[in-house]
Amino acid sequence: MHRRDILRLAGAVAALGAFGPAASAASGGRVVVVGGGFAGATCAKYIRTWSPGTEVTLVEASRDFISCPMSNRVIAGMLGMRDLTRNYRALESRHGIRLVHDTVTAIDTDAREVRLASGASLAYDRLVIAPGVDFAYETMPGLESAGAQRLMPHAWKAGPQTLDLRQRLTTLREGGVFAMHIPKVPFRCPPGPYERACLVASAMKRFNPRGKVLVFDSNPDILAKRDLFFHSFVSEYKGIIEYIPNAGFESANAAQGRVTFDVHGEVDADIWNVIPPQRAGNVARTGGLANVDNRWCEVDFLTYESRVVPNVHIIGDSIASAPGTPKSGHMANQQAKVCAAAIAALLAGRAPSDEPIIANTCYSFVNDKEAMHVAGVYKFDAEKRTMVSVPGSGGLSPSSSSEEGFMAVAWIFNILNDTLS
Ligand SMILES: Cc1cc2nc3c(=O)[nH]c(=O)nc-3n(C[C@H](O)[C@H](O)[C@H](O)COP(=O)(O)OP(=O)(O)OC[C@H]3O[C@@H](n4cnc5c(N)ncnc54)[C@H](O)[C@@H]3O)c2cc1C
Cis link prior to 191 (omega < 30° from 0)? Predict the structure, then answer.
């Protein structure tokens, strides 16, 4: 499918704003959104846009929005943390959303209210849960304690650990080793670890040319943009990146900088970046919403309402994704709009659309200038009750290029504006 067609189809979701749900202006009702990431912030904004009579409260633990997309470039010293950081002011001042900076500690689905760490409660007619992911460290012997986890940071939520890895890379001894562990899918952003390996290698090439990047992947092969990443590993980063598939994590000795893998034995490195297995954000699990393997939340893809708890919608990384679809910020943003349109309709007593179409584009940088993308378009399949790839849609860059590097930067500006402005 042509890029033009992908954009046209993606526009179908955005176009809902101009026509469909606007009719529900006077619907009223109270919606509480938990989590102001790509999913929650977008959903809060679009409920207010399409259903201005609805009172929307967004509960977000952090003061600032910090983007994971582009955070690998911070680790490699190509951007600073301020390039990833945005505020929530426009959601309050322009969209009339009530921002509460607090943590939701419990969901009472009978009383239809959420409880906050501060002790307050918020009542809802519809609840949207968008807490992203949390980490299954209890499955990683040696990394159960917070102290051990700090010694082998994941940097899979952008923030202090991103800077920590940046700092460690800056002070790495000459010829030192940066080693990564990639968990089994599903996890947030399947191309992200391979992008990180390339960008760390790119930094090494400039500042520490005898340094090494070891990539221990629990999966049998590179999970996304396979041939493109493989090409970078064996050409641009030949002699720097070593890729090791089927590397099952057994245990870690964080104090000694050592990880033991099933078939590869003990490996020592100067810097360990251990990305743990992931699951729905804790609040979704404790709220009884994670009905798939006690890990992910099953939803109705027409409304993103939970399959187990009525009036509660889940969007973003926490859901049990439709087969073949990634957990990404772009998908989170698109799911949020479908969910917002459905909530606007339901509050107004109308049926939600039964033919949602969403799109995903994911750019990865391979060095300081060049990027590549993969794109897909997905529609609702009424028989399978899930999202399926639109035949003939999707596309992959033939190679990385600096033109795509520009497009990747435009993408992040656009999606951050769509989410927060
Ligand atoms: C290195 C890296 C690179 C990436 N690159 C890309 C990319 O190029 N393109 C792309 O599309 N995606 C990318 N992603 C994936 C993307 O970041 C995630 O898919 C996206 O953030 C998911 O959005 P979300 O809203 O579900 O979760 P998040 O964005 O993590 O938001 C969840 C929010 O909920 C809040 N929260 C959680 N629990 C509570 C609670 N109990 N109370 C209050 N608040 C709470 C958190 O503070 C957080 O702000 C990347 C990810 C990583 C790690």
Answer: no
Q: Apex CA 6: angle with CA 353 and CA 334, to 5°?
A: 45
Residue-wise pLDDT tens digits, 279-337: 999 999 999 999 999 999 999 999 999 999 999 999 999 999 999 999 999 999 999 99
Nearest ligand 1 atom to alpha carbon 157: 53
Give distance in angstroms: CA of 157 to centre of ligand 1: 7
363 lines ligand 1 (CB under 6 A): yes
Residue among 274, 286, 317 to mutate when testing ligand 1 (max atoms within 8 A of CB):
317
Measured in Å, residue 329 CA sits from the centre of ligand 1 at: 7
Give the burial class of 417: count Cβ atoms within 10 A of its Cβ; 0-12 exposed, 13-18 middle, 19 or more buried: exposed
Phi/psi at 406 (nearest 5 deg)? -65, -45
What's the mean pLDDT in 201-218? 97
pTM, full prediction? 0.94
Rounded to 5 degrees, φ, ψ at 338 are -60, -45
Distance CA 352, CA 344 (A): 8
